[in-house]
């Protein structure tokens, strides 16, 4: 199965190399790599062009935000499976794509998702938040549950059913698209209980400066799907607390275990 991976970027000279190297280190051979740049003004494209012989499609032009970039990538994708790798993120392991493809083949799913960790911007091994998505049940959506968007891979034909990302939403278009897939449609979903991604804290989805704008978009989105936004979003916020607690415990325990082993 051919896998299309889309990386969208804008002024990401500090992190884009890590993302590209992460993709290129995957041990799965049939990958189409697409980089969509929003006309960066720093050295992002200088770095991208260092890898131009290993990137299948490179686009650099002004756009109106990340979701327009993602849609551009989806339109150009020719793979059987489509996934995202944001320019602040890296895949969790070198065999991540292999494990995702194996899950599609094993389950014949249209939508596969897994787990992810959030890390300190300058230390990819310093885990701040541990997001274990857990198995999918449609009833969970009422409680604000959604899989971690950056762990989601889909059969490309799913876009013919649910459409592309709604570019009117500047921060929460991923939530709206996930709800279209999981609430509005009846599709074959599979949970891969493995870590898929390492995400740096501080991106568009984790910046505190954008929290209020995201909240307003989320309110509108949940209401449009007939879900009570006050209940769903409140429970969504509360569900994040254990993710931080678990991350701190795992990081501390792992560090202590390493220190004991090295003694």
Concise structural overview:
The protein has 263 residues and is an alpha/beta fold. Helices cover 39% and strands 22% of the residues.
Helical stretch tally: 9
Regions with pLDDT < 50 over 5+ consecutive residues?
Answer: 255-263
Strand content: 15-25%
Query: Whole-number average pLDDT?
Result: 91
Q: How would you describe the shape? A: globular
What is the SS-derived class? alpha/beta
Major sheet: 9 strands, mixed
Using DSSP, what is the number of strands? 9
* Topology as a string of helices (H) and strands (E): EHEHEHEEHEEEHHEHHH
Task: Give the distance, in angstroms, between the N- and C-terminal Cα atoms.
Answer: 46 Å
Helix content: 25-40%
Q: What Rg, in angstroms, do the CA atoms define?
A: 18 Å
Structure description:
This protein is an alpha/beta fold and 263 residues long. Helix content is 39%, strand content 22%. It has nine helices and nine strands. Strands 1, 2, 3, 4, 5, 6, 7, 8 and 9 form a nine-stranded mixed beta sheet that branches. α7 packs across α8.
């Amino acid at each position: 199965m051919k896998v299309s991976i889309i990386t969208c970027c804008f002024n990401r000279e500090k992190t884009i190399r890590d993302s590209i190297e992460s993709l290129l280190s995957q041990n799965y051979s049939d990958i189409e790599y697409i980089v969509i740049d929003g006309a960066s003004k720093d050295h992002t494209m200088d770095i991208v062009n260092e890898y131009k012989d290993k990137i299948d499609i490179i686009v650099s032009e002004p756009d109106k935000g990340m979701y327009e970039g993602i849609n551009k990538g989806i339109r150009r994708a020719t793979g059987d499976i489509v996934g995202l790798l944001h320019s602040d993120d890296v895949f969790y392991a070198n065999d991540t794509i292999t494990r995702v493809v194996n899950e599609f083949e094993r389950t014949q799913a249209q939508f596969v998702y897994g787990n992810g960790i959030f890390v300190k911007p300058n230390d990819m091994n310093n885990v701040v938040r541990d997001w274990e998505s857990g198995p999918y049940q449609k009833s969970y959506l009422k409680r604000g549950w959604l899989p971690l968007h950056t762990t989601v891979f889909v059969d490309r034909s799913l876009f013919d059913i649910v459409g592309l990302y709604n570019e009117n939403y500047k921060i929460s278009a991923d939530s709206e698209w996930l709800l279209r897939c999981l609430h509005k449609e009846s599709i074959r979903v599979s949970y891969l209980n493995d870590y898929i991604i390492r995400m740096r804290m501080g991106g568009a989805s984790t910046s505190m400066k954008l929290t209020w704008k995201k909240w307003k978009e989320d309110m509108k989105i949940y209401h449009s799907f007939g879900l009570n936004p006050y209940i769903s979003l409140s429970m969504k916020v509360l569900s994040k607390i254990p993710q931080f607690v678990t991350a701190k415990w795992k990081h501390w325990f792992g560090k202590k275990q390493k220190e004991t082993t090295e003694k």
